[in-house]
Structures are given as C-alpha cells and as structure tokens.
Amino acid sequence: MTPLQEKLLPILEEDCRTPLDVLAVMVGDTPERVKEAIEQLEKDQVILRYRPLVNWDKTGRTFVEAMIDVKVTPQRDKGFDAIAKRIVCYPEVKNVYLMSGAYDLIVLVEAPTLKELALFVSEKLSVLDSVTATSTSFVLKRYKQEGVIFDELKEDRRLLVTP
Amino acid sequence: MRDFISSRVLSIASSPLSEFLTLTQGVKNIISLGIGEPDFVTPYHIREEMIDSLLDGQTQYTDSRGIQPLREAIAAYLKERHDLCYDPNSEIIVTIGASEAIDLVFRTVLEEGDEVLLPDPGYISYEPCVRLSGGVPVPVATDSTFQLTGQALEECVTPRSKVLVLSYPNNPTGAVLDDEHLQQIVDVCKRHNLLVISDEIYNELVYDGVRQRSVAALPGMRERTATLNGFSKAFAMTGQRIGYVAAPEYLTAAFSKVHTNTILCASRTSQMGALAALVEGQRTDYQEVAKMRDSYDARRRLMVHAFSEMGLECYEPKGAFYMFPSIKSTGLSSREFCKRLLEEEGVVCIPGHAFGKMGEGHIRCCYATAHERLMEAFSRMRAFLERLRSQSCSNDC
To answer: Which terminus of chain A has fewer Cβ atoms in its 10 Å neighbourhood, N or C?
Structure first.
C-alpha cells in the first residue's frame, strides 16, 4: 500500500462517491495519480465493490435474516477452508466468518420468508457432511451496520456563530 | 436611576458575533463557516467515562487545582508532546476551559493601566478580558503571513508594557509562528521583561508536518510564561469547558488565590472526561486526535483549493481549522461582505474586523464542517463573487 492509497481508503470508506477532483484536493495529489491509485486498489482487490448501505427497514421489502452458528469437523490438510468455501456459494449466505469459541463458523443468511430460511438450514446447511451442529438466531432489528448507526440524529448542535 | 454598570464593562464594545447570530434568524438553509468548534462529538470513551463517574456518585467539589491524576496526566502530556516541564503538585491549575485561564492570568498579573500586547488579528476575547482586568490592550500588527515580528513588537513596547499574548496556531488566521520569528519575540520579551501568555489551544491541530514550538520550552522563557491549553479543540470537548494553565510555581500560587475564590474548581465530571482523554491518548499515541486532525487536513485542502479558484487571496493555514482570505478585491468591507453573503446566499462567515483592525478586509472561514456542506458553501460563495464582480464591472462600464 502506498501512502496515497492509505490516505484515500478512509475517505472512500466514508463516502465512495466523493468525486475524483475533490479526492485529489483532499489528499493533495493530482486527479490522474488518484485515479491510478484507486484502480490499483481495485485490481489488488483491496477495494472489492462500491455499494450503498441500505436501511431496508425503511422500505417495503420484507425478508428475514439470521445468524447461524455452525459447528463443523475440519478436514485433513484443508482445515475449515473447504467447508467454508462450500457454504459461501449459496446465494442466501451473505457473510461467513471463522470464529473462536463454542462454534466454528458464523453464517449470516438472508431469505424472503421464515419458511425459506428454515428450509435452507434444514435442507442445505445442516446436511453438509462436515456440519455437526447449528444454532439459528433471527435478526429482530438493526441498530448499527458497517459502523453506521441507523436512525442517528444528524442535526448539528453547534451554534451558527462562535468565537 | 444610578448607572449600575461599571465603566470597565461599559468600555467593552458589543460583540460583532452577536450581530451575525441575530442576522441568521429567519434565513433558511444556512451553511455556517462561522463556527469555532470541531464538528466531531466528544469521543465515546470520554463520554462513557464521564457517565460512569456520575453513576459512581462522583459529584463533589474537587481540589481547587483539579484532581491529582489529571494534573499528573497533564504534566506527562506537556512533557511528552511539547517538551514542557511542570510540577503537577505546584505548577498546574485545571480551569473551566482555556477561557477561564485567560481571564485568570490577566486578573492575577495586571495593574490598572498595564499594557498587554496583542498580535492583531487575534482571538476576539483577549481585548475585553484585558479591559475587565484594568489593563490596556495594545494591538501589534502582524505581517502579510500573519507572523508577529520582533520589530513590530519592539515598536509597540512602552514602559507600561507587561504582558504579551501569543496564540499560535492562530484563530482566526490558522498561522503558526515559525522558529525564527519566535526567537525574535523571545529576545524582545527578555529585553523588556515581559510576561508571555501562550494560548496553545490549537497546538494539536497542525498540518503539513509543521510543529508549533511551545514558547516556554525555549531557554530562559519558562520563568516568564504562562502556558494555556484545554481539551476543546484537540479532543472535541468544547461543551465540557475544561482546560488548564501551567506556569512556574510563583505564578501558579498567585493564580490559585484568584481561581479558588472565583471558581472553586472545574466540573468534576469534565475533569474525569479530560483524564480519560489523556490516558487513552498516552496509551494509543493520540490516535483519536490524529484521526480528527487528518480529517480537518483533508477539508483544509479543499478550502485552500476552492478559495484559490475563486481568486480570493489567502495565506495557506498550517494550523487550527480556519482560513482567513482577503476580500479586499471586492471593494466591500468585511462586515458588508459577510452580511450580504449571509442574506443573499445563506453562508455565514465572520468579518475579519471582529478579530482586530488588521483583520479588516478579511473573513474567517472555518472548515470543520462536513465536506459536502463545504462544497455547497463554496459553490454559493462562487456565485456570490461572480455576481459582485459583474455588478462592479457594469458600474465601471
């Protein structure tokens, strides 16, 4: 990582729509070099994707989300990677992490209905050879995601004029 | 009826800021660049520490000088970050923001008629505070890059000169004082036996690798310097009102007499927050401060770029979070410029004359505001300037 890239990432993480010329001024470099640095970050898969953080609770869309703790038997030479790589392939699966503690993996799953989610667990996830146990917890409400607090009061409490 | 108001208070002009605050009423969709505080909320660990102290029932008065662990943390901070040595037991007093410290020092050292040298432009409240203590404010013009030169200072010194106030990084200009100028000033202070009040409230907010040296760290200056600082700017703790003065024992003992009788002590809750700020800072090498500074720096660059595009002549600030561009080319006074900018475009800036005579022809713009808001403010200012220029052109033609 170059110093320029290190400067760019926090700004992009805050707002990836910041225009190139503004970014260039903010980091004190030329738009051409900033463009190049970002392209390299994309090529190196440091930046994977640009997408909005949506508060779905404010839309009409209904779906269910669950965190599933999964206990697995690690495979010889492959550890947990082989099973994790199978699990990530399901389109229902949004996040997968290898964890310390009582369970091995945490799998975040999203499905249109409770029934479909239940079917995913019982028919797809639990039946995988290495999976020995699961424990499903449903998401009831989202308060904070990716460092962003939902429904946070954004008002500026500062006086308009101060010395 | 008798006139109950003292002549000292009557001698203080009403604040030009309150005029602008009144003008903002009723104007819709305002973007304010007239704010003098961070746009960050106090870091959560600091707020949590204050909440915990309240839940724990820590609601009593403290030692008038401030709680011992805070004074120790301040002494360690000043040593580590600014090369200053103060004894936490006898040379530090925790105050209600640096503001109280300013008043405290003036009250303690000024006799009626003593002259206080104030670099111009400078912070709004020095002059009234000097008057309230019976002193006579003497503005000293700074040069085109807002540096105070030894020569300018020398020219203003009289037998009644007693105190010089240094405030770098500077509000409103964002200037820092380079080592060469600092040395010139130190020489004048020693030659004329002046006390220096060094207001270092912005000393964590410096950019481009620049460092503002503390005057008390220079040889022979510790004995004649009161160093003022606080938590408002570096730790985004403006509303907690917490700061301190550090000075040699003979001065601190005298400050203590005034502080004990007027204030008793700073808020215990705020002291707990300040302690948390320093303890965490010392543990993490002030990462939180660095993060905020980087964010200001990015926005500083945006503002420098925008003003240069607008054709507003401006010294590039190296500290604090202000810019002080010249609006002389518009032919308007700074008051008229700011008033019209507010009325016509809903952008608040502070007229430079509020910061002293030398500030006339400039406006103070604070860049501690979200960058989208800054960009919007710049486009409104651009439109305003274009309109002014086309009006003056049509008048000329």
So the answer is: N
Segments of chain A scoring below 50 in pLDDT: none
Q: Which residues of A touch B39 (CB under 8 A)?
A: 156, 158
H or E stretch covering A42: helix A31-43
In this structure, what token pair is assigned to residue A138? 């449903």
Residues in A closer than 8 angstroms to B371, CB to CB, are: 15, 18, 22, 26
Closest chain A residue by Cα to residue B298: A26
Query: So what's the pLDDT on residue B74?
Result: 98
Q: What is the pLDDT of residue B286?
A: 97
Minimal Cα–Cα distance from A62 to chain B, Å? Answer: 32
Place of tokens 């410029």: B337
* CATH 3.30.70.920-classified regions of chain A: 56-140
Report phi then psi at A56, rounded to 5: -65, -20
Q: How many CB pairs under 8 A join A and B?
A: 55
Domain regions of chain B by residue span:
14-36+288-396, 44-284
The CATH homologous superfamily of the domain defined by B14-36+288-396:
Aspartate Aminotransferase, domain 1 (3.90.1150.10)
Instruction: Tell me whether B12 touches chain A (CB under 8 Å).
Output: no
The CATH class for the domain spanning A3-43 reads: mainly alpha
pLDDT recorded at residue B15? 83
Distance from CA of B238 to the nearest CA of A (A): 10
Calculate how close chain B gets to A61, using CA atoms only, in Å. Answer: 30
Contact A161 B294 (CB under 8 A): no
Residue ranges of chain A that CATH labels 1.10.10? 3-43
ipTM summary value: 0.86
CATH dotted code for B44-284: 3.40.640.10
Q: Give the distance from residue B168's alpha carbon to the nearest chain A alpha carbon, in angstroms.
A: 16
Please report, for residues B115, B182, B333, B384, the alpha-carbon distance to residue B309 in angstroms, rounded to integers and kept in the order given.
42, 32, 21, 14
Spans in chain B with pLDDT lower than 70? 396-397
Do the strands B136-141 and A64-72 form a parallel or antiparallel pair, or are they unpaired?
Answer: unpaired
> Which pLDDT does position A154 carry in this prediction?
74
pLDDT at B395: 73
What is the distance between the alpha carbons of residues B288 and B278, in angstroms, rounded to a whole number? 11
Is 0.80 topped by the overall pTM? Answer: yes
Alpha-carbon span A90 to A74, nearest angstrom: 20
Residue A62, SS3 per DSSP: coil
Residue of A nearest to B18 (CA): A161
Q: What is the pLDDT of residues B36-77, one digit of tens each?
A: 999 999 999 999 999 999 999 999 999 999 999 999 999 999
Query: Which residue spans within B212-274 are E strands per DSSP?
Result: 225-230, 243-246
Angstrom distance (rounded) from CA A94 to CA A117:
13
CATH 3.30.70.920 fits A56-140, yes or no: yes
Distances (CA, A) of B232 to B31, B142, B211, B383: 22, 26, 19, 34
Which is nearest to B203 in space by CA: B240, B177, B241? B177
Tokens 């300040």 sit at which residue? Answer: B274
Per-residue CA distances from B49 to A147, B46, B251, B279 (Å): 21, 5, 32, 11
